[in-house]
Inverse folding.
């Protein structure tokens, strides 16, 4: 089935609503969601929250950058949740980012206590590195109603070609059966078989 970017945006709106109910007790306001290219932006930026004061319709916006579109729906949803933390803090008058864009302890507290995210502190960006906890992953896999195939198909070259300095380039493999995607930094090609559907992985 062919998917369009509009399909992904509609799916993210649905996921935002479900996560709003599950994590934030339905306290977050209506949101606009966009997908934008990572070109001319920091290559490490996966998402962004724009406050309502920047828009004539007075509605907040979350942007997912194409660098996040790697086919891993857990990763993409985790990026959405990260930006929902910023939305929650903005709507509750909580300053969570300093003038130098460092994520402070207010961000960390909401991300951990409310949004079910793991938080890691970086030297330059504060508590900006987040990932889904087992509780959030369990909700995504067992209770969240969304189209997993759409996320697996909507892969952008920005996410595939990005290579951080100082790191080995990741090789990506996709299962020919269930289309699960894995990353591996080993230079020698891997020969992998999926235990779920007994199909081979092929390099993307």
């Amino acid at each position: 089935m062919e998917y369009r970017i509009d399909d992904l945006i509609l799916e993210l709106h649905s996921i935002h609503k479900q996560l709003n109910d599950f994590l934030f007790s339905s306290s977050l306001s209506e949101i606009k969601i966009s997908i934008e290219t990572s070109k001319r932006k920091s290559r490490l930026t996966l998402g962004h929250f724009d406050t309502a004061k920047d828009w004539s319709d007075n509605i907040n916006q979350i942007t997912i950058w194409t660098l996040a579109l790697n086919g891993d729906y857990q990763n993409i949803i985790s990026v959405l949740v990260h930006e929902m933390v910023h939305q929650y803090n903005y709507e509750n008058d909580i300053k969570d980012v300093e003038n130098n864009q460092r994520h402070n302890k207010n961000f960390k507290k909401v991300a951990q206590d409310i949004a079910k995210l793991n938080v890691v502190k970086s030297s330059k960006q504060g508590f900006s590195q987040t990932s889904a906890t087992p509780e959030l992953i369990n909700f995504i896999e067992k209770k969240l109603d969304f189209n997993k195939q759409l996320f697996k198909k909507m892969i952008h070259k920005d996410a595939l070609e990005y290579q951080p300095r100082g790191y080995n380039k990741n090789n990506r493999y996709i299962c020919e059966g269930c289309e699960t995607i894995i990353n591996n930094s080993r230079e020698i090609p891997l020969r992998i078989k999926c235990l779920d559907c007994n199909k081979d992985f092929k390099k993307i």
The longest strand covers residues 126-132. The first helix runs from residue 5 to 24. The mean pLDDT is 88.
